[in-house]
Amino acid sequence: MIGLVDVNNFYVSCERVFNPALEGKPIGVMSNNDGCVIARSAEMKAMEIPMGTPSFQLEGLRRRGEIHLLSSNYELYGDMSARLAQLLRDSCPEVAPYSIDEMFIYLDGFNDAQCQTLGEVLRRRIRRYLGLPVCVGLAPTHTLAKLANHAAKKQSHYQGVCLLTANSPTTAALLKQLPVSDVWGVGRRIAERLAVSGIHTAWELRACDPKQLRKRFSVVLARTALELGGTPCLEMNALEQPRQRIMTSRSFGKATSLKADLHAALRRHAQRSAEKLRQQKSLTRAVLLFLTTNRHRKDQPQLSPSAMIPLTSPSDDTRIILEAVREGLEQMYRPGFKFVKAGVMLLDLVDAQQYQLSLLQSSTKAHPHLMNTIDTINKRMGQGTIRFGMTDAEAPWQLRCAHRSNRYTTCWDELMEAGTHPGAIAAARVKHEQQRLARAQHWVQSRV
Ligand SMILES: [Mg+2]
Questions:
Q1: Which three-class secondary structure state does DSSP give residue 119?
Q2: Which of 223, 387, 421, 447 sits CB 3.0–4.6 Å from 233 for a disulfide?
Q3: How far is the centre of ligand 1, averaged over its atoms, from the C-alpha of 68 (Å)?
Q4: Residue 434's pLDDT band (cuts 50, 70, 90)
Q5: Distance of alpha carbon 270 from alpha carbon 257, whole angstroms
Q6: Residue 102 C-alpha to ligand 1 middle, in angstroms?
Q7: pTM (two decimals)
Q8: Greater pLDDT, 297 or 270
Q9: Inter-axis angle of helices 169-177 and 142-154, to 10 degrees?
Q10: What is the pLDDT of residue 445?
Q11: With 50 as the cut, is the pLDDT of residue 124 above it?
Q12: How far apart are CA 91 and CA 391, in angstroms?
């Protein structure tokens, strides 16, 4: 069985963990520099405020207290995502992050009842330990797990956990209702062509002859049909990328603990991701990096660090993404661990054409032709013909984030404060600051 664990309204839910007063209220999370809405709570969706609405248009609603707008707190979201992955690794044989808030779990050898129980346990545990609401979809294939997750989210009687077997009447009923365009990996264009052949629902696609599908459409569509029937044949990496993120990850030929090796791998993935980004004419708002050690080597210390780096403004510039990679690696690298896999995820994508560059932001797009030229040469002469060398320009970014919540889980200065006398808190802060200075001085002295 394959499970898909997906956090409901991830960014908003992270905010609510540390500010329960936001529960049940319409919340919007804004992009970097507080430009537009990139995540909405269910209540805000119900008000029909669309994704991408510029923040200034909502200023009136915000001032009247009808909605809450928060600056994005990527450090918090990245850390909560890492905690979710860790919790799942502690409870499941194998875990693969698919996006910042979606993780696949692989449950080989579990029977259906055990999977169902584990799903319920995980859901409760994630709520209790992390404060996050999730839905769990369980099924024999990735494609059906995605569908099961969707059902768990939309149909309240599942109570957040839905298990679908290949041949149950429930699966058949769901597939009969599902338009083929909503099946994972079926794009709008293919859906239109399928409609011409009289295939409108997922159920009708499942009934098609895979050989015919491969001949007339593509091997991916043939496999999708098989997956709908319960035969696993799609690797996670072959699945269609959600429009909101691009991931490039790969296992190393040989485990390495060298920072230079890891940097090289991450840089390669970042350059590939940036190419895909430009191909689909998107810009990214944040870069998520991760490394993994070999979990099968019980004799070696295990670590799966990740780092989330928000960009000052949305970008498709490889140089800016590489700078984020450099910064992220600094944050997550620990010597002494043998890593076997590295990945780069570009998150919260925005349509490059719709994104209007303001005067302030135009400086980051100074060389659109440079990126085009590099892509063209690499296409003609082979992947990686032109690559970027080391860049170590330290760009001290100053993001505008007037409404950002504290970085509760990653910053000593921004921890949650229990109700103590304000004077005591101030005194504790002064003491903490003094200790920090003393540590810094000690560090400097020990190196002089
Ligand atoms: Mg989600």
A1: helix
A2: 223
A3: 20
A4: confident
A5: 19
A6: 6
A7: 0.75
A8: 270
A9: 80
A10: 77
A11: yes
A12: 40
